Prior knowledge:
With 412 residues, this protein is an alpha/beta fold. The chain is 34% helix and 26% strand. The protein has 13 helices and 20 strands. The protein has helices at 16-31, 46-57, 63-70, 72-87, 119-128, 155-165, 199-207, 215-224, 281-291, 321-330, 332-335, 362-372, 396-406, and strands spanning 3-8, 35-40, 92-95, 102-104, 113-116, 131-135, 138-141, 146-149, 170-175, 196-198, 228-232, 244-247, 260-264, 267-276, 299-303, 309-317, 339-343, 346-352, 379-383, 386-392. Helix 1 links the parallel strand 1 and strand 2. Residues 9, 153, 156 line the site of magnesium ion (MG). The site of aspartic acid (ASP) has 13 residues, from helix 6.
Amino acid sequence: MPRLVMKFGGTSVATVERIRNVARHVKREVEAGYDVAVVVSAMSGKTNELVGWVKEASALYDSKEYDTVVASGEQVTSGLLAVALQEMGLKARSWQGWQIPIMTSDAHGSARIAAIDGTGILQGFSKDREIAVVSGFQGVHQPTGRITTLGRGGSDTSAVALAAAIQAERCDIYTDVDGVYTTDPRIVSKARRLDKVSYEEMLEMASLGAKVLQVRSVELAMMHRVPTYVRSSFDDPADPKLGTLICDEEDIMEQQVVTGIAYSRDEAQITLRNVADKPGIAASIFVPLAEANVNVDMIIQVVSDDTTTTDITFTVPAADYERACSVLNQHKDDIQFRDLQGATDVVKVSAIGVGMRSHAGVAAKAFKALADKGINIRAITTSEIKFSVLIDSAYTELAVRTLHSLYGLDQA
Length: 412
Ligand code: ADP
Ligand code: ASP
Ligand code: MG
């Protein structure tokens, strides 16, 4: 029997009625002849609630206990879906991460999957076509026996990793939109659904803020060449559409220069004013930040107003902003900056497309279009298949829509 992994996100399992609807989708695939492993998220809003409780219990919580608490949302939905499938006359059982086991690192809160032992699930398939209902987002660090979680949105990664481990024919990620769009359809109504998108572009889109798939899931799909579809659980279970296929670049016939626009609010800007303009200064700033595990993204250096010193601007993840400022202040004597200015009301807007490799001037067009709308660019980065601009967050939607139209992505 061919094998299939189906993943259902939070809104798809938000109520018992929605879980029953998921069971109908699963039943269809079982009847079509697949052995099925289903990966489920927690009911929508549940993980946020659990995270809130941990933070309420202690500001400096133990990350192992955080994982114990937040992994529980998926335990509930896996059990409920197994019950709903049994109710329909199908054989099914739930699996928690530690039962399979899905073995991970011990980086609690953002653990990485090291290996998955698919033996038990495959035995269930071959014995009596038992459907495996797997709790997404969670695993176990075997040396300590502790429950781990894979970071927010991690059920996508559980699903793709499981598909690779049991050599599934494909992995279907069911969500509340019917595929990957040229940009977030919640903010641009003219966004278009893509039939196919390459692994490379999807990886950039996810990294640059498109939360439709967790970054790591795309990395795994690309590495193990798992054909992955993003599709809707809101389709009629009797007549579903395929959604968007994430696949090799070579399998896409018509390539646009720009495939998608993404935005991320998880950025903060730091500017060090009047830094001495001499060798070693960049190292004195960025080495301590690296040692504190702060990822620096965009960097620009300009001559200060006094023309003898320089201003250095860079971005860090918003979650690391306070920590980055305190590290820099601790090293103020080595760096010798006069002022530290920060901004958290910034957003990074990016355009992604493999076509940029062969077309010049793609980013330049955007700078002009944004300027025409009166949007000030605070920082820029470019690489082979994307460019990003940092702007005031108040202009997020205007900037995303402007670039979306500029590159011909609007729906007719
Ligand atoms: P789930 O709970 O099923 O994992 P998510 O909320 O994590 O669902 O992801 C789906 C959401 O991703 C959509 O509702 C949509 O608003 C958002 N999204 C952002 N960018 C895109 C994009 N380019 N294409 C489709 N959806 C996107
Ligand atoms: N429930 C987890 C979260 O909300 C994992 C997931 O849904 O993918 O982040
Ligand atoms: Mg998600």
